[in-house]
Design goal:
Number of domains: 2
Distance between the termini: 27 Å
Radius of gyration: 17 Å
Number of helices: 3
CATH superfamily of the largest domain: NAD(P)-binding Rossmann-like Domain
Strand order of the largest sheet: 1-2
Structural class: alpha/beta
CATH architecture of the largest domain: 3-Layer(aba) Sandwich
């Protein structure tokens, strides 16, 4: 996860939801430049995740995404970097 810190945008947050004993190495300068942060989050049990997905399916919850074919990955990436993407950019195959 240490390699991800420099990929965060301004005010970006790395949310750690997986449990591992490997340290996350980050310098104070990496966090201060761009006001970045790291946060841990207890995501619950596998049963909680299944319940959440079942609820989403039954109640019609759908992700808000923009899709691009893999061939337009560069265009999708540029849109994401521009900040104009609606929520998430997803590549399709």
């Amino acid at each position: 996860m240490s390699e991800l810190i420099d990929g965060l945008g301004p005010n970006g947050k790395l949310v750690v939801i997986g449990a591992t004993f490997d340290p996350i190495e980050v310098t104070p300068v990496q966090l201060i430049n761009g006001s970045k942060s790291i946060q841990g989050w207890a995501a619950g049990t596998p049963a909680d995740s299944e319940d959440t997905l079942r609820f989403a399916e039954l109640s019609g919850v759908r992700p808000m995404i923009e899709t691009y074919p893999l061939e337009k990955a560069a265009e999708a990436y540029a849109r994401m970097l521009s900040g104009k993407a609606e929520f998430r950019v997803v590549l399709t195959m």
